[in-house]
Design brief:
Number of strands: 8
Enzyme class: translocase
Family: Belongs to the complex I 51 kDa subunit family.
Protein name: NADH-quinone oxidoreductase subunit F
CATH topology of the largest domain: Rossmann fold
Structural class: alpha/beta
Subunit structure: Composed of 13 different subunits. Subunits NuoCD, E, F, and G constitute the peripheral sector of the complex.
Number of domains: 3
Strand order of the largest sheet: 3-2-1-4
Pfam family, one: NADH_4Fe-4S
Radius of gyration: 23 Å
Distance between the termini: 43 Å
Shape: globular
């Protein structure tokens, strides 16, 4: 994994003024521990929040800054915080950090936790102060063993320095923080499935309402935020709303910076902190260096496996939620994948849908049965054994598993790349349809009503 500088030719040095998330990173990639973090102005924002700001003022500042969730959904963070109950008699509340980063082609939170664990802890400490939560959990992807080790060490350092535990900074405020490793399920990225798993239950999403802010962990008010989201909080508190908004490019409706990346057969795959509003072309050409010699860009996904495919002509779209929506898909996690011209789209989609089908919690019928059905059809088409009507059946499944049709957002995210792949590369799917003479009689094939 690489993390290059803000400038296309590595000429511009990362600084606190332009890189609130990454300016403290070491050049050798080692973790920044407490002494070094504090020497780089670490926990100054927390001290400001505790000494100079009322709890409601912290919430309002985050809301005014326009910070949105960085896990993929993009919900306004300050609005989410505002949903927590105001009743002072409710003295048990929880703050959960969603660090279950299992979206294929996404590794941004891993970098923050491994190399800047105290930035996450400071973000959670300020957030806990604002939300009046007395206990926090970092729900961590089980495979992130290095992140777990670094976070646990950082938590112990913070405790020893009086930055976690009882009477933090002499304020009378108590906050305990625990690292909880998950068992390796993609569905735990959904906040209520995460809560169920944390409680020791099966990781199924819960019905909403009630929302976690009302009934969350063990029935108590709970706020769930992504790693990168929480890591933005210290800079907003330290440097203010106007500065934070000024980081984004003109035209972007999202504020601040975003960890963005590119993988695939590009010359310089990596991860960079960039302002919202940069174009996909800048990300692809200036940072990722374009395709390796001998390969041509065929398609790309802007933000993880659950986002729709785009074509090379879409690279001029601005990288923020509304900018990517204009070309027909979602910003997602902001880590893009390049698909080169040697890749067969049917095989790629079969691989993706197998992953999503395996990771379904099985709670609702469309997801439990629809995703495996799509895999069976794609496997047949991949072998050249597809039957007339199979493509229409796949498109029917895309509709039946779309937004609002399932219990959570797992299935809609799973079929979004499938629908876009058929839209842009239908001839590759048609090539896998067997001749009419080899077709199975229609009544022997499953039929999707309304396809």
């Amino acid at each position: 994994m690489t993390l290059t500088s803000f400038g296309p030719a590595n000429r511009i040095k990362r600084s606190a003024e332009t890189h609130p998330l990454t300016w403290r990173l070491r050049d050798d990639g080692e973790a920044v521990w407490l002494d070094e973090y504090q020497a780089k102005n670490g926990y100054a924002a927390a001290r400001k929040a505790f000494a100079d700001m009322a709890q409601d003022d912290i919430v309002q500042t985050v809301k005014d800054a326009g910070l949105k969730g960085r896990g993929g959904a993009g919900f306004p963070t300050g609005v989410k915080w505002g949903l927590m109950p105001k009743d002072e008699s409710i003295n048990i509340r929880y703050l959960l950090c969603n660090a279950d980063e299992m979206e294929p082609n996404t590794w941004k939170d891993r970098m923050l936790m491994e190399q800047l664990p105290h930035l996450l802890i400071e973000g959670m400490l300020i957030s806990a102060r604002a939300l009046k939560t007395y206990r926090g959990y970092i729900f961590l992807r089980g495979e992130y063993t290095t992140a777990a080790k670094h976070l646990n060490r950082a938590v112990e350092e913070a405790k020893a320095a009086g930055l976690l535990g009882k009477n933090i900074l002499g304020s009378g405020f108590d906050f305990e923080l625990f690292v909880h490793t998950g068992a390796g399920r993609y569905i735990c990225g959904e906040e209520t499935a995460l809560i169920n798993s944390l409680e020791g239950r099966r990781a199924n999403p819960r019905s909403k309402p009630p929302f976690p802010a009302a009934v969350g962990v063990w029935g108590k008010p709970t706020c769930v935020n992504n790693v990168e989201t929480l890591c933005n909080v210290p800079a907003i508190i330290a440097d203010g709303v106007d500065w934070y908004k000024s980081l984004a490019r003109e035209g972007s409706e999202d504020m601040g910076t975003k960890l963005m990346g590119f993988s695939g057969k590009v010359k310089n795959p990596g991860l960079w902190e960039l302002p919202f509003g940069v174009t996909g072309r800048e990300l692809f050409e200036d940072y990722a260096g374009g395709m390796r010699d001998g390969f041509k860009l065929k398609a790309w996904q802007p933000g993880g496996a659950g986002t729709g495919f785009l074509l090379p002509e879409h690279l001029d779209a601005q990288m923020y939620a509304g900018g990517i929506a204009k070309v027909g898909t979602r910003m997602g996690t902001g880590l893009a994948m390049a698909v080169d011209d040697s890749v067969n789209m049917v095989s790629l989609l079969r691989n993706m849908e197998q992953f999503f089908a395996r990771e379904s919690c099985g709670f609702c019928t469309p997801c439990r049965d629809g995703l495996p059905w799509s895999v069976k059809l794609l496997m047949a088409i991949e072998k050249g054994e597809g039957q007339p009507g199979d493509i229409e059946t796949l498109l029917g499944l895309v509709g039946f598993l779309g937004p609002g049709k399932t219990f959570c957002a797992h299935a809609p995210g799973a079929v979004e790349p499938l629908g876009s792949a058929i839209k842009y590369f239908r001839p590759e799917f048609e090539a896998g349809i067997a001749p009419i003479s080899a077709a199975v009689p229609p009544l022997a094939r499953p039929i999707v009503v309304g396809a």
